[in-house]
Amino acid sequence: MDYKINKAIRVLVIGDIMVDHYIYGNCNRISPEAPVPVVEITKESYTLGGAGNVLKNLIAFQSQANIVAVVGEDDNASIVFNELASINIAKQGVITDPNRCTIMKTRVLVSNHQLIRLDREVATPLLPQKEQEMLAYLKDHIMQHDIVLLSDYDKGLLTPVLLNGIFAICRENNIKTIVDPKGDSFSKYKGANIIKPNKKEAIVASGINITDTESLTAACVKISETTGCDSVVITMSEAGMAMFTDGKLTVIPTRALGVIDVTGAGDTVSASLGVALASGYSLYDACNFANHAAAVVVSKVGSATATVDEVNKQVILG
Question: Domain Carbohydrate kinase PfkB: where (predicted)?
Answer without folding.
Answer: 10-306
